[in-house]
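User: I'll paste a sequence; please echo it back and then give the predicted structure.

Assistant: Echoing your sequence first, then the prediction.
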Amino acid sequence: MTREQRTVFGEIAEQYDAIRPSYPNEMFEIIMNYGGLQPGDRALEIGAGTGIATLPFMARGLDVHALEPSEGMAGVLRMKGVRVEETTFEQFDVDHAAFSLVFAAQAWHWVEAADRCAMVADALRPGGTVALMWNIGRDHPEPFKTDNDAAYRRWWPEQDLSYAQIEAAELIDEFARCGAFEPIIERRVTWHCSYSRDEWLRMLGTASNHRMLPEDVRMALHAEVGDAIDAHGGALPVTYDTVCYLSRRV
């Protein structure tokens, strides 16, 4: 069976759930306030993963229907009591105007349908909100960055990150061309954390592009990255920008 990059997370679902960063509470409040969302409102999540964004919305009283194509990830969701449908957004048979919120956290770039904005519009009630959110790590600090970059050049010189790049202008234009939404606005929350060597290597092990590497290359790369962390104090500080693009269904 051919492995598909957008579903390889299921191979390490429990590791993903344990190590992937959450999102700031402030961002969930921004989304709730922007949408005028209230307990009991229905929400549709695209690519729910293991529920890192699902549970905070549920804790705020939203009735979340989660879509997740990976069997492994969906299994973790069910253990947390999340109602999940094991499918992609493209394959989901949506009820017209059924939801007050459609959201995706770290997942919108995996939706491949050319008419994906129109599909979101169809799912939303008039005035309903779409929220597309990502955690984006800033450049690593020096001198670790120099050693880390050298490791990637040595073991993975053709590294491609285009699958996860968020081009705000393209996203804004895409929704504008759809004609069903108010102009998109961007909201950003910056926060900081730190990883030990083992924690960062576990994090890299959940990245889909790393999962697609030959195992020997992945192991050699991760070993050298880990050595660089040890050489620079044994801890890696990381700054994240949580970025969310918001709009309402007209």
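Strands lie at 42-46, 63-67, 84-85, 99-105, 124-137, 185-196, 235-248. The chain has one domain: 5-140+162-194+239-248.
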